[in-house]
Amino acid sequence: MNVLKVPARTIAVFVLPCLLLYIGLVFVPIVVSVYDSLLDWDSINKAKFIGLDNFKTILFEDTNFWPSVRRTLMYAVFSMAEIPICLFIAALMNRYVRKANTLVSIYFVPVILSVVIIGQLWKTIYNPTEMGGMLNGILTSLGLESWTHSWLTEPKFAMYCLYFVSLWQYFGYHLLIQYTGVQNIPNEIYEAAKIDGAEGFKSDWYITYPMAVPIFKISIVLAFIGSLQAFDLVWVMTGGGPAHATDTISTHMYNMSFLSLKYGYGSALATILVFICLLFTVVINFVFKKVEAKYT
Amino acid sequence: MASKTMKTSAIALSAAALLLGATACGTKENNTADNTNAGTNAGNKGDKEVTITFQNIYPDPETPSYKMLHALVDQYQKDHPNIKIELDSLNTDQQKLKLKTQAASKEVPDITIVNPSAQMKPFVDAGLFAPLNDMIDQNGLKDTFQKGLLDYYSFDGNVYALPDGNNIEVVYYNKDLFAQAGITAPPATYEEFIEDVKALRAKNITPIAIGEKDSWTGSFLFMNVLLRTNGGPGFLQDVLDGKKKFTDPEFTDAVSKFQDLIQAKAFNEGATSVDYNTGGNLFKTGKAAMMIMGTWETGAIDASSVGGKVGVFKFPTVGGKGDPDQFMLAPGSAFAISANSEHLQETKDFLNYFMLNMPKKQFELKNAVGSGQIIEGDFKAAGYSDLAIDVLELFKGVKGGDLAFDNTMKPAIAQVHLSSIQNMFVQKVDPANVAQEHQAAFDSNK
Q: What sections of the protein cross the membrane (chain A) (predicted)?
């Protein structure tokens, strides 16, 4: 602050609009949700205050809650597992591909598409043979008929099919972030390393990866938070079905709040989701602080 | 230099903020001004400028319902220049969600759409809708409705909504595909029905098209089986009254019979990822032999590529039980008026006009099959299809029936039911477990 020689008042003026927006659109609704979660309320009639009963039911009786938590966390794990691969490819591209920007843009295309379009697209790919699904068509033409499945409706496979679409869509996004990060590593360091005898993969290992840690962290946090909120893709492709087999925390929340008309219960789920988000953000930050301290 | 630019922008920003504040104040003042105007105008009776918000579920310009809505609204605005009707046209799911949100903040539009019985009850309990008893007595509107239909929209002797239709569940079948499978006559029993399903499968024809991603479709069909195994209507009502339980044999029978149908591969593969429209299109493009659905589909089937090849039959008896003349009844979505409407009288007058003229307009637009109101007119002469005439013939023989599950039970129970039925499409279940699941949901959401 002192470096810029800007009076605190000016700073306050600049921060204020965003702060107000943030408080109004994020903070207040969270507080309201937390309050609603203590109610037995259908969102239409009078609410009844029931304390922590909703949470008790969710944690100990709701047969659909823990499986949907597991799916949500798996979603997050898969999304995060993709990022090291993105970093690896980004490093390769930086070294071997001249004018990699075009390539990155191509990878980025699915990110621009609306999730509804992507969902519909992949639905036709996953469709059962009877409805001309492309994946099954390819398997059949390869003589692998016994491998064909009705991908989105068999509880065993449905969720993995969804994970895959999400990985496919966000691959370009994380690749772009990692590539930008890798590009920002000063060339002099590589040159110095070359003199010391580190080239190719060796320089990746000792220079690129350690120096990409802060950017890596950004991707991890984005991927994690993004997948905790996974809703749109699931809703478009399976609607959480068949029979809750692909429900995530947020689709379960939607079901409860708007379809079952248990608004208080839905709010309790939302509160738990916020809590999980906060908890894991703290954990991730803690882990990366250690990693960063080690490498930078 | 940097600090100077910053200062300038800071000033610009605060100026902008001030402006925003000013406009906010401005609108407020305008509002009050409007109110006073309205107040003074109210003195000059009849000329009051009134805007009525009309939330509806007819957003698709291709459909007859859309044309009917716009024709009537335009006419009314022409006859009453001081009245402006603002249409808020949404598709069904969006409208349901929007109304719930509006209800939460007590801002229900002047006219909105609700579903009968249990589905509209929470809104009525919250006092959001105006009773329409006085309004339906005007111009003889009440007598245009089929007998007993308004009961589904009445609570404690007050009518709260007026339906846009009244349909029954029937089996539509593609005559060409039936002939290909060597089926000569529509099945009269469930057992024959399953044989026919197998015959169709043997010819590689999808027997029944369904869009089970929208899980009410499977439930609607399942309820028809239950209507038979129960030997007549009223099973759910009996459960509500404490006379029966979901674990009773009528219900478990229905589950196992319905499972027989699924296990005979009666439905399109991967049905649970197929939405309602896509499911319907399987039938309407001749890819499936049957569709078991409400009669509201009649017009759309006539207009599709299989139009003219489609016949209709009643859902058969199951295990010798039930009466084919009893149907799953689907009293339509209905128009309700907000109790807090600022222009209650004008809104009532408009809806009265709308409901009185709707049947005639629907008839002209060939959309009158499944009308909830009595229609005078020769359907055949007006050019209605054979299918439509057959369906109308079925209507004449209706001897009562049941409402859909979600029209009878609370939403929380209905959701458990819907996903329980959806589950049957993807794996074999033990009927006793399904019954248990229902009973548990019922007990915990009484």
A: 12-35, 73-92, 104-122, 157-176, 211-231, 263-288
Residue A158 belongs to domain spanning: 59-293
**Does the N-terminal peptide bond of residue A242 adopt cis geometry, omega within 30 degrees of 0?**
yes
The label of the residue with tokens 């075009």 reads: A102
CB atoms under 10 Å from CB of B234, counted, come to 18
B-chain CB neighbours of A238 within 8 Å are 213, 272-273
Tell me what pLDDT residue B92 has: 81
Over chain B, what is the mean pLDDT?
Answer: 86
Residue A22 lies in a domain: no
| Residue A260 distance to chain B (closest CA, Å) | 4
**Residues B178 and B109 grouped into a single domain:** no
pLDDT at A137 over 50: yes
pTM: 0.81
Judge whether B395 lies within some domain: no
Query: Where do we find the tokens 């950017």?
Result: A215
At residue B266, φ and ψ (nearest 5 deg) are: -75, -25
Cα maximum dimension of chain B: 93
Question: Regarding predicted confidence, which is higher, B41 or A32?
Answer: A32
- What pLDDT digit, counting tens, does each position of A91-102 carry? 888 888 888 888
Task: Determine how β-strand B111-114 pairs with β-strand B327-331.
Answer: unpaired
Whether A24 is covered by a domain: the verdict is no
**Could you tell me if residue B383 is inside a domain?**
no
For residues A242 and B426, the answer to whether their CB atoms sit within 8 Å is yes
Distance CA A183, CA B235 (A): 69
Encoded amino acid at B411, one letter = P
> Chain B: residue nearest A238 by CA?
B273
CB count within 10 Å of CB B383 equals 9
Spell out the residues 6+ positions from residue B352 whose beta carbon is closer than 8 angstroms to its own: B135, B136, B138, B139, B141
Per-residue tokens: B60: 């698709």
Sheet containing strand B50-56, edge to edge, reads B83-89, B50-56, B111-114, B334-337, B161-163
- B56 assigned to some structural domain: yes
B interface test, pick of A45, A236, A263 with most B CB neighbours within 10 Å: A45
User: Phi/psi at A49 (nearest 5 deg)?
Assistant: -80, 125
